[in-house]
Amino acid sequence: MPIGVPRVPFRNPGEEDAVWVDINRLYQERLLFLGQEVDIEISNQITGLMVYLSIENDTKDLYLFINSPGGGVISGVAIYDTMQLVEPDVHTICMGLAASMGSFLLVGGAITKRIAFPHARVMIHQPASSFYEAQTGEFILEAEELLKIRESITGVYVQRTGKPLWVVSEDMERDVFMSATEAQAHGIVDLVGLK
Questions:
Q1: Between the CA of residue 144 and those of 3, 39, 64, 154, 163, what are the distances in Å?
Q2: Which of 5, 52, 122, 190 has the highest CB neighbour number within 10 Å of its CB?
Q3: Catalytic member of 91, 100, 103, 186
Q4: Name one Pfam family in it (predicted).
């Protein structure tokens, strides 16, 4: 096995001792992990795995474990769109932190199959950009594009949380941190717990 491939202990059902397996074993069990900032590389890896696993078996659910500070909007939207595209339901599980784009992916899981661990934290806010570095013409174009993206993301939160547009819009004006139970009350997750 190449150096750097993570290994984890895994106990097969019916066996007493766990064996160390590489992460690919987890993929076989349809367990996907977002444990970093969302960027184009991890987005391509997760979307590719979702498509591959759904082709392999389109009836067995996928599980996306999220512990992410957020990241790129376009890369995150690619993961979200893939979650909606694939036939199997995608369970989303927040462990640690689902902030910004991480919370967007968390809310994107199959309704009734979005979970937060009891000590998890969730944070929502509006999408940001680095347009302050752009020239005037580019600034205006980027600001218009950012408004379109914000409307789209706000619409997803409204649809998937059941909260009114004004509530979601107001919450996205600033960083709103929530406990797991607050995220459940807000409609971002359906269940809080480990089971």
A1: 45, 22, 32, 15, 25
A2: 122
A3: 100
A4: CLP_protease
Amino acid letter at 157? Y
Our answer to whether residue 186 is catalytic in this structure is no
Burial 126-144 (b: 16+ CB within 10 A, else e): bbeeeeeeeeeeeeeebee
Would you kindly state where each structural domain of the chain is located, as residue ranges? 21-192
Looking from the CA of 162 toward its CB, the CA atoms found within 13 Å total: 10
Helix residue ranges per DSSP H, the chain: 23-28, 40-56, 73-85, 101-107, 136-161, 165-171, 180-185
For domain 21-192, the question of CATH label 3.30.230.10 is answered with no
CA distance 106 to 183: 10
- Residue 15 falls in which region: left (phi positive, over 0), alpha (psi -120 to 50) or beta: beta
Instruction: Classify 70 in phi/psi space as left (phi over 0), alpha (psi -120 to 50) or beta.
Output: left
pLDDT digits (tens, 9 = 90+) for 141-188: 677 888 888 899 999 999 999 999 999 989 888 899 999 999 999 999
Please give the pLDDT value at position 130. 52
Which member of 125, 129, 169, 179 is catalytic? 125
The amino acid at 125: H
Residue type, 118: P
Q: Is residue 125 annotated as part of the catalytic site, yes or no?
A: yes
Instruction: Read off the DSSP letter of residue 133.
Output: G
